[in-house]
Amino acid sequence: MKKRTEVMVAGALVAGLGAGGFAIGRLTQMPLAGANTMGNAATPTVNGSLPSFADLAAKFSPTVVNIKVTKIEPVADDGSPFGEGFPFPGFGAPAPRGPERRQGAGSGFIIRKDGLIITNNHVVENAQQISVTLSDKQEYKAKLVGRDPKTDLAIIKIDAKSDLPAAPLGNSATLRVGEWVMAVGNPFGLSNTVTAGIVSAKGRAIGAGPYDDYIQTDAPINPGNSGGPLFNAAGEVVGINTAIFSQSGGNVGIGFAVPINQAKALLPELESKGSVSRAWLGVSIQPMTPELARSLNVDKARGALVADVNDKSPAEKAGIKRGDVIVAYDGKNVDESASLPALVASSAVGKTVPVEILRDGKSQTLNVTVAKLKDESVALVGKHEKSNWGLSLRELRPQERSRMGLKDRDGVLIENVVPDSPAADAGVQPGDIILQVNRVSVDSIEALKAEVGKAKPDKPLLLLLRRADGNTGYVALAAK
Hints:
Layout: E1 7-9, E2 12-14, H1 54-60, E3 64-73, E4 100-112, E5 116-120, H2 121-124, E6 127-133, E7 139-148, E8 153-157, E9 180-185, E10 193-204, E11 214-217, E12 229-232, E13 237-244, E14 255-259, H3 260-273, E15 279-280, E16 283-287, H4 290-295, E17 304-309, H5 314-318, E18 325-329, E19 332-333, H6 340-345, E20 352-359, E21 362-369, E22 371-372, E23 377-381, E24 388-394, H7 398-404, E25 412-417, H8 422-425, E26 433-437, E27 440-441, H9 445-454, E28 461-466, E29 472-477
Antiparallel strand pairs: 1-2, 3-4, 3-6, 4-5, 5-8, 6-7, 7-8, 9-10, 9-12, 10-11, 11-14, 12-13, 13-14, 15-22, 16-17, 17-18, 18-19, 18-20, 20-21, 23-24, 24-25, 25-26, 26-27, 26-28, 28-29
């Protein structure tokens, strides 16, 4: 499974569809205020045999939009700007090249008559500009309202001149394998393309994230379909086309869509806060196999095997241990390990839930008070409004420190660089590691932010960076 880049560059089609998982935090499913349901269409048939999607396509294609973005993508640095003979590769006199702007494209669909649109996160991620073209060729600039990388979902909004047609949102829980479905989108830039097929499977885990629960379909979808709707035969959106399995980059009859029920649960918080809060249990899990079940005296291969427990986590405090098998969470059976993350994430932060485990073959129930899952990535902003350095940071993982030859808790990873920011101007690149701020070593994001807070607004911010190629050097960020 390839991550979907969904990019058309200089006329060349870059194939591969992106993928994301799903999780919900303290949310409740609720209808969208002001939604235009447009009514349900009857199940399409031709002489009682094969279906015709002509009426559905005519009625609901106007709810589908073409999304174009100007994206910022990092450019690999070849080291020395003067060739291999330059004695100081990576930090020569000329600043290394920063991220480049590229054009991207994808799909989306209107879910509210005031111009609220659902799409995939990877379609708009790192976008500097977003434009939306409607089926009648009207074009609008769009603003990003909220996004959730872990589910690969995003919502954007346009200010249209009048009310827009909105796609009715269905119930993906009632979708059955073998039902007819219709996909609408902009594959390879071919706007308002309609394809049809059936639901091939449900609950697919494709390794895209911890919350995988995809609808599999053979309705042809290709690069450009990202973020477009998957309609059922009643004209309701039941999924958001997100990924394909392909060795060639084109459709081979295996596509994946995020169930619309998962998206509906996220929408209120995405619109109000721009991001999603999730509950956290604090365990690493793996699937059960018949061999593991026999070894652990479990009657059959079911549940989620606890491979590790995080220090000071809700699970550790409740007494969950390595080797335990979680078979139920908050009254819901855990038949497969892949279903547990979504159950945990759907819990209200701070709620105490019963967790049934099997330990040495015997059942017991532990009460766990779940905590809030922390977002690893934070933005670096100075104490003055103008001192937005344009960096998104996160803590380094142990394997990353080992690979870079760094001591325990040395440095902070730069995950993203905002275009036209002080960091971008100085040649800072995603993947660089900040070792020092103004000549003071930093071992965490909190320590880094503390040093940034001490910086004088009239002086550049001096960073010592470790590049991905192992080279180390200083850069100075001038506040704008």
